[in-house]
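User: My collaborator sent over this chain with a note saying "see what the structure looks like." That's all I know about it. Can you take a look?
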Amino acid sequence: MKNILLATIFIFTIIGCQGLDQKSEWESLTKQKNDLYRRGDYKEAVVVAGQALAIAEDLDSDQLISSLNDLAVLYNIQGEYSKAEQLFLRSISITESTLGEDHPDLAFSMNNLAELYRAQGKQTLAEPLYIRALDITEKDSGPDSLKTGIILNNLAELNTAKYNYTHAEALYRRSLKIFEKNYGPDHPDVATLLNNLAELYKSQRRYSAAEPLYKRSLSITEKSLGQQHPDVAITLNNLADLYYKEKKYDDAHPLYIRSINIMEKSHGSDSPNYAMVLNNLALLYDAKAMYSEAEPFYVQSLEIMEKKLGYDHPNVIKIYVYNLAGYYNKRGMYHKSIPLYKRAILAMERAYGPDHRNVAIPLYDLADTYTKLGQKNMAIDLRERADKIKEMTQ
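Assistant: Without extra context I'll predict from the sequence alone. Here is the result:
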């Protein structure tokens, strides 16, 4: 089951004083892009942001840096990670060369690049960028500023992914306190923090603590952004996942359906978030023994993520390939599950090395499959290798 975190990302605009006609057009396009972003119309926002960037190439570095970040953030949301990375890196390079290594605008770009890396599961690349961005921002704006609160939230998400739950909770609570103090209890950014803190509690199986936070987050988001906004879809997905984990399938199903419909309209049917909700709905149908409904969603979500992250990306393997292989195994379709488990073993070896604990997982799964087929010798060899890896990594 895959959850989606709401991450607050800087999209900032700096107004300069060069080329009045071009500057006015750039300002108009940037405002239009911001309006589209707030409405959740990300596909159209990408087009307008690209037009603004083309104009910004002939303006001051301030406008250029702003437009680079704006378009990169939108690419990141749409899962166009390589395009986003190029723009973020260019923005950082320009900012450092023109404004210096400790300028507050540098923190914007570093935070956004860290968000990109975190979305791709590149935690070791993301963490130092977050920490440096936080250091710059606290010195410039103070420890209780909104800018500091944003980076605290994003750093908390990273710590959640690394299972550093105690540190993550402290960061979320500090960030939530900052946003409630500055914006009041009913602001969309407060809803973001509530959702993310609920995600943390859910990962710790603190379900009774998570549910009221999700519901409060959903209520705030629907009232402030509208019922069709993509942030509403994210919270719907995450609340549905809570009900799934509690085996409240009838409560989860309509939330997933509503989330998918919103995602398709706002992100398109080939975005990572859309794929994640499809995968979650497939798991729900699987749990309810609605197998003919589950399989096409498993396959579709896998195909989307292969295009976005790559055929052998660890996140593609650990979520989408594993889920589809498990589905086939449970249905006795071993001729389909075995190639997927073999693919997972090779991908994990390439990503982590032959003796990493992540390699042991598909080894055990493949061994169990061969046992069911009566191929005991092959199963024994695979299980012995997995046992050795487990012993080495304990």
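A starting point for your reply to your collaborator: Residues 1-19 have pLDDT under 50 and may be disordered.
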